[in-house]
Amino acid sequence: MVTNSTIANIYLGAVVTALSASHFEPAVIQIPDGEEHKNLAWLAFVYDRLIDAGIDRGGAVVALRGGVVGDLTGFAAATYLRGVACVQVPTTLLAQIDASIGGKTGINHAAGKNLLGAFKQPRFVLADVECLSTLPRREYVAGLAEVIKTGAILDAELFQLLEAELPALLRQERDLLVRVVRRCCQLKALVVAEDETEGGYRAILNFGHTLGHAIESLTDYTTYLHGEAVAIGMVAAARVSHRLGRCDETTVRRLTQLIERCGLPVDIPSDLGRDALALAMRTDKKALGGTIKFVCLEGIGATRFERLTCEEIVRHI
Ligand code: NAD
Ligand code: MG
User: Fold this and answer.
1) Is the entire prediction scored with pTM above 0.90?
2) Which atom of ligand 1 lies nearest, measured to the CA of 113?
């Protein structure tokens, strides 16, 4: 079982006790907390510990984790002995609704995020929403950005539920949270089942991410959490969609208001110039010959792809 120091302090005892009661003997591998450890050096550390523990092909790797440990552990499971079973136990909202579904695993390279990786579907995912009560508030709210994204691109009914019940969701009311997490998982699983390796349709999940990634990279990944940058990116993407005549103003307003009500940012920081944004988008690994398969919003719950140059995107923001 791979985890990090922060999560181990809170949950390791209970999880090891439960596994032992079912006659498993977990070897625990701890890596330090933080995105900066999602790299080759810590992957090598995990391989070493798996070998030390004598894990064979009949073994399984369990990731007790947020998205960072999940990605690294999933990649270890995909490659160790050419692949062993992997179980994901996500403990952040982002990881429960997004990073544990769909099989994308990997690590960062100095040249960019998630440049090395593999598709590895977990044997199963166990998401317990009660874990979210110990999550820092800011992390929880950032996860809500991906929840809003899911509703905005795929499910008008979910979006309406969020509009109506946001205060209860911010209070983490259990039944509502279960309902929302379950729905987001279903929707993401449907998209992935359609297009596992992102040949086409799966790219719909990039809504808000083209600009979000550019903002994250231009601020050195230190100013915004991923969900916060995606929140800004979604508002910008909705504005671009409106300027291109793809959606009405009400759609842009509903999305912006819901994001604002969470306490998430909506404006591109004023010190980020358009040229810099365009350049950052062009170097994104998903850009192709200077153009982007941009996810436009057509209305709440409806999208279409539009091939745009990076310059066109920033001109319409
Ligand atoms: P994270 O894993 O860094 O977790 C955020 C923080 O919360 C960490 O400090 C963590 O130790 C702590 N934490 C986690 N669970 C906790 C709990 N229950 N109580 C208290 N503290 C807790 O960040 P994240 O937002 O979960 O994931 C971000 C990562 O996920 C990025 O590396 C990103 O690339 C990746 N990601 C992957 C996919 C995918 O499809 N594989 C999708 C989205 C994001
Ligand atoms: Mg994301």
Assistant:
1) yes
2) 34
